[in-house]
Amino acid sequence: MRARFPPRALLAALTLLGLASRGAGSLSPSLTSEDPMRLDLEMNVTRAGDVTVLVWEDTYEEGVDGEPMTVVIDLATGDPNALSVTTLQSLSADVAAAAFIEPSDWAGPGAWTRPRAALVDEVHHEPSTDVVVTSACCSPNLTDHVRRPFTAAEPANLFLTRNGTHEWDPVTLPPNLPTVHLVLGLGSEEDDNLNDGMTFSRVVALRAAVATATYSREYDVTVSYSGAGRPKHAWAPTVILHGYDASNFNTDLAAGGLRREVVREAVAYALDLPDASLAVLEVADEPASERSPGEGACRFNFTVSDVVDPDEVARAWPLTNMASFLEAAKARMLSNALWELVAVSGRRGPGVTATVTAELRPNTAGSWVRIANGAGVEPRDVNAVMEGYAADEKVFVSSVAREYVLSSGEVFSPPKISEIRNAPPTPSTVLDVVHRPGSARRMTALVARFDDADVAERGYHVFRVSFHNQRPGADARVAVLDGSDGGDDPWFSRRYIMLSRPPSPPPMPAPPPKVQGLDTRVAAGPAENSVSPLGTSFEFLFEPLPGCETCGVPTGTTVYARVAKEPELLYGDWEACTAVDVEAVVQVLGGLNVTRTVKRYQLLHEPEALGAYRAQAKSVDEDSFAPGMDALEDVTPVERRYIVGAIVSGTGVLDRRTGVISVTFTDPVPYGEPGAAPVDAPALLSRTSLDLLGPGDVRVAWANPRTVLLTLPPARESGLCAAWREVRAEALAYALRNNRPDVPVRLWTDPGSVALPTEMTISWRAPEAWYDVASGFQMEKSVVLTIDDTLNAEAGVVIAGARVSGGCQQMSLQAVAADGSWDGVARWSFDSVLVSPNAAAAGAGADSSGTVPGVDEHPDLQRIVADANAGSFSSLTLDPSNTKPGLRYKFGASLTDCTGLNSTASMDADRVAGAVPFVYPTSGRVEYVTQYSASFTVAMETRIPDVNESVVKFGSSCDVDVTTLTYIWTNLTGEADCFFTDVRSTAYAGFERAPRATRRTLVIPPFCLKPRPEPHKLELFSTFGSDPGASASRTEVLLTVIPSPLVAAMKGGTGPRVVARGAGAFALDASASFDPDAVAPDAETSTPSFVWSCGVVETGYAPDPADGSRDAMEMERLYAKASVGGCPAAVSEKLAEARGGPAVPEGVSGALELDTLYRFTVQYDVGDDRVANVSTLVHAVDARVPSVTLQAPTQKTASSIALRLVGAATRTPGADGSASDGAVAFSWTAVPSIDFSNPQNFLTSTDATSLVIAPNVLLPGQSYVFTLIAKQEGVDGVGYASSAPVEIIGPPATGVVAATPAAGFELETEFFVTTQGWGGGGVLLYSLGYVARGANGEDAEVYLTRQLASTEARGTLPADAGAADDKVRIFAYAEVPGGGGAIARAETTVTVARSPPEEVARRAQDALRAAALLEDTVSRAAGAVAACAAL
User: Fold this and answer.
1) 872 burial via Cβ count (<10 Å: 0-12, 13-18, 19+)
2) How much is the pLDDT for 450?
3) In whole angstroms, how large is the CA radius of gyration of the chain?
4) Do residues 930 and 1033 make contact, with C-beta atoms less than 8 angstroms apart?
5) Which range among 39-43, 396-400, 869-873, 1271-1275 shows the weakest confidence by mean pLDDT?
């Protein structure tokens, strides 16, 4: 095996063996170029003296513009002529004299030391020698230094050696490199380049330029756009104050300093910049030439700094000389006592500058040397790279400061000395001249001096000089002069500089590269697991790679690819990719980035379906498939997964009334599809979000595939509101940070003007599992949750509970929101104790001394209140033993809502002796308002003591017959005829009471109580038996009755709708308006009055009725928009012809202007203070169109109920006015859209004037706008009419219903039915009960409560409910008040054991009495049947 030795290594070997000639005066130069962009010159110095080396590019002999030293080539020899050699000798002598002789004016640092060598780039005939080094230059480890170059050209880095070593071998990777920060100064005050700020495109361009200038990969460079190192802008505006001298702002005087601060704050305010970003640099008087005679004027020079947002820069920089800024600043100063101010003027000042930090992570020798050597990268380096950038990307770099970022405790020093490869034996001198890649000078002279001591030891000194990063693709010429006495003749040579290492051996035809395998890389294409919309065309570019670092890629290599869709992954055949030439940036040795044309292999894929796809590619050497050859291909194909679909995001809203978070997604979610398996909150929400919404249980329900409802636990068990208040408190504190005693009050921030956050964030536990991988959809991790911070006008707290309680059962008080909402956390107080007015005798409740025991003498009550507050409980439960008869106990309750608003209430609870039915309003409120024409229900709750237990526990006074419970309602303030019948009573004077006045819950029919400003005081008297004694309670409620509002109605609906100008079918008719109170039995006859008006809403109005652009928001905008003008006079005249009547005569449409949207309004009154208005929107077209009207449905309707739309249409007459019989085709549109092609969505056909939409088709939470379109045969135009938005109400989020105890004996065990988590709580009305066997054996629902706000009820377990397994079904309904029938139902069961035979009769009689207490007649009958079934 033969090995090839490079000449320099051979010379070193011969020297060691003593075979090389060491004759006097023989330098024996050797020139090689075996490494890319590098030239190596070796020689053997045997005498003291100067050695001069001149390196220049071939054909550069004539120089440029006659500046460099001219080298004349002798055509006969091909070497420089004698004159050129003489010139070089003269240059050598000049350089030696300048570099190797101690300057007479040497000033340090330290003693002068003669350098080994001196370097001159772009050699001139008369080099400058007056530049003396004053600090260490160039050599990184400071082992030696040389003078700076004698010309103004770019310097080279001259690395000097000791014993054959030097720092940073340019092809050796330095270890443990720290991160480097380059702090860049950007822009110039002399230009306007940055006056619109460091935009994102500039930041991106700067990053690329820094990467190129530092020989780094772009992804190893970070230029922050939003982090701590983000661009910070600065500029220096000037503001001139006319009317003041600079002395008025002298900071040595308190008043002057205050005035200066007023000006600074006013300028910051007018610029709309933070106070901290503006500082006063100087205050000086304006020159006399710049102001009027006798006028005082001073100039404020400001500095604006640390402005981050480029949009703020672009906005604020031009303001300084704009009138709006000057007026705002002047007004601000005048309002702060600068009353002598005459005017304000301004100048923008110099251009904007900026600073930004670029973070570099060097990982190559070239990059590290470039960054760390000497001063590192200079501004001109980055500017040179950006020279070809677009104007909107280019930015001028004015300064670069380098910082090393060290880990904690790390001490940084440059990498240690490393060996040079093939180092010659010592003693030796090795010099490396390292230019920046691509920046080597085209002519360089090097002079090295050797003394006798250098050759004394062995008689010779090995000298090597290497020129790195030479320009490739050209011949380099070298001239060597021996300056020793009797030295050699000048020596000349030349070598070709290559860009990359040639194949070995050159230049014979290269043998096939070493091949051990093939690999494949995705050079370009969609990112792994990226998501793109359907319709995207995907392009992949693949690159074949060798199987090892020293291997090559065969010339016959190509790439095959294939694609498959998950989850089947049915790959087809491998198909050859298309070979394409692309431009790519590659890095060559030395760290130089160059752009080359390279071969890549293209695959195009255009998916036709959503889903996840996988593309595979493998490199194949097609030549290897020839006969007799081993096949070569990539056995591990590269794979890239990409998704065709969408990123699904959600937006959340918290309904503070119900405690339900509604999250609406941009696309349907599988969890919400019909039949999908339920998923609970711990599986859906992240741990952080569960902790935020909890710690109580969060319930999950899907209203539809795009909407999930998260029902929060009771407010006291949810941390959401507390966390939100904390976020808002922090934001407010930050906004008010300058409201301090040391800041003038006029500069304080008004807390009311601070916009506080209204958002929180929740996140999902495993969003990647929401969709099947093949679906093409991915769920975003987080959802922004909006919380309305509007103060609720109905906010408040009421205390529900009996005002009078006896000594036979516990008293229960509950603090609830006045509007019945979820939003609120309660806190209790025990305020006072007084003698009750209901006490049986004077002094009752006092002790023997007549003293009433105070709050402090009720430690048990104080403890109960403290425990309730510790748990934020909304109820208090008091045992009779905690209170004393004859006393009135006052309790207070506060409710803190989500915004932190605190509402308070108090209640007096009287304690009496004996058994008293607990009676109190279900809602806790005692004040109500209703309309005269409406029925009203006063729902009351009753708690009856358990006689057997209470007698044992509290004594014989509790032995009462609870089945004789009696209720009597009385109006204490006036007549109430509906409380009585027409039959006179035989027991008392007057008429017998009506059944409604003897029930616990009072249902007041319309027109029963007269309207009046003062409330009616209604009293419910309840007692056990006809002789109440002490066992009675009186509960008062206040009911205010107001007149009913008038109902104004206009034929044709609210519109918008279209009519043909001059159409006779267009009518303005409000005859359907009515007064609900006019049908009262004693109503006075009144004459209604109608006033018609008209206004123009929009001009140029020509909508397309079928384009789906008019959603609920657009309709509300049209309805609320003020008129922009009045109607034509002819229209007003027609309206006046109505003369107060409900209908306008025909002819209005003929006076309408085309493509103009009109609003016709009628005001309806009946002679009192009540007024009602209704409007319709109409526009006219100059075409024959059918006249269409659409009756608006109820504005709120339940999604579970069919929705009926009633329209009508009139054919348009013929062109000659004759009647037309052309067929009319009808169609419907809806926004949001519904599928009109699916007949299952409708109960009627979709091509008629009326339409019935099936239940559960419309989505809850949406507001729909419906349009009826009519197209008449033979008529070009279409008629249409749109409805007002119809709000769809969904059923309540189904909660749980529970029964306690879960088992018991029929007809004996009393059980409690409770509900929890239904849509968050109290705003719903509940109906609770159980299912019994009816009279005919059918199921009958026995209601214990019906449509009450109470979430609990009690009753006796029924007998023979018809279940074979002794299970009785307990049910609960929840209904949205005013929700158009939105209702939900849930069930549970209890186990009912049979009664012993001997107990059946007694228990059945008790059950009959219990059934008699039920108010609902059907429930009473069902309960009686269930009781009698046991007999």
Assistant:
1) middle
2) 86
3) 48
4) no
5) 1271-1275
Which two tokens mark 511? Answer: 């043998």
d(CA 54, CA 42): 14
Residue 1011 near residue 1041, CB atoms below 8 Å: yes
Report CA-CA distances (Å) from 1358 to 1308, 1366, 1403, 1429.
Answer: 8, 11, 10, 9
- Closest to 280 in 3D by CA, of 257, 297, 308, 296: 257
Closest CA to 1249 of 1269, 1272, 1229, 1221: 1269
According to DSSP, the residues that pair with 685 across neighbouring strands are 764
Burial class (CB in 10 A: 0-12, 13-18, 19+), 813: buried
Q: Is the pLDDT of residue 311 over 50?
A: yes
Dist CA 1420 CA 1411 (whole Å): 5
Residue at token pair 């800041």 = 743
Q: Specify which residues 1339 forms β-bridges with.
A: 1333
Q: Which two tokens stand for residue 648?
A: 């699904």
Note the helical H segments in 848-908.
859-870
Q: Which of 1423, 1430, 1425 is nearest to 1356 (CA)?
A: 1423
d(CA 672, CA 56): 78
Spatial CA neighbour of 1307 closest among 1392, 1366, 1389: 1392
On the CB side of 964, how many CA atoms lie within 13 Å of its CA? Answer: 14
d(CA 791, CA 774): 47
Q: Euclidean distance between the first and final Cα of the chain, in Å?
A: 118
Are 1313 and 1373 in contact, with CB atoms under 8 Å apart?
A: no
CA 953/CA 905 separation, integer angstroms: 33
Q: Are 95 and 481 in contact (CB under 8 A)?
A: no
Q: Across the chain, what does the average pLDDT equal?
A: 78
**Contact criterion met (CB below 8 Å) for 1278 and 1187:** no
**Structural tokens at position 230:** 């983000």
Band of pLDDT at residue 95, cut at 50, 70 and 90: confident
Bridge partners (DSSP) of residue 240 are 299, 345
Among 30-34, 264-268, 1406-1410, name the one with the lowest average pLDDT: 1406-1410
Residue 1005's closest CA among 920, 930, 942?
930
The rounded Cα 1414 to chain-centroid distance in angstroms is 54
* Rounded (5°) CA angle 402-408-412: 45
Q: Write the CB contacts of 769 (distance below 8 Å, at least 6 apart in sequence).
A: none
Residue 803's identity, in one-letter code, is R
User: With 0-12 CB in 10 A as exposed, 13-18 as middle and 19+ as buried, what is 1359?
Assistant: buried
- Token output for 660: 């339900």
What CA–CA distance (Å, rounded) separates 654 from 662? 6
Which has the minimum average pLDDT: 67-76, 187-196, 584-593, 1193-1202?
Answer: 584-593
Burial of 790 (0-12, 13-18, 19+ CB in 10 A): exposed
Q: For residue 402, what are the CA distances in angstroms to 880, 1110, 1299?
A: 81, 60, 75
- Mean pLDDT, rounded, for 1028-1055: 82
Q: Is there a contact between 49 and 487 (Cβ–Cβ < 8 Å)?
A: yes
Output the pLDDT for position 149: 34
Rounded CA separation 954/815 (Å):
27
State both tokens at 1001: 């819950």
Structure tokens at 1401: 């009769």
- pLDDT band for position 1160 (50/70/90)? very high
Q: From CA 700, how far away is CA 1409, in angstroms rounded?
A: 41
> Could you tell me if 665 and 650 are in contact, meaning their C-beta atoms sit under 8 angstroms apart?
yes
Q: How far apart are the C-alpha atoms of 543 and 522, rounded to whole Å?
A: 6
The region, left, alpha or beta by phi > 0 then psi within -120 to 50, assigned to residue 7 is alpha
Whole-number Å distance between alpha carbons of 434 and 467: 6
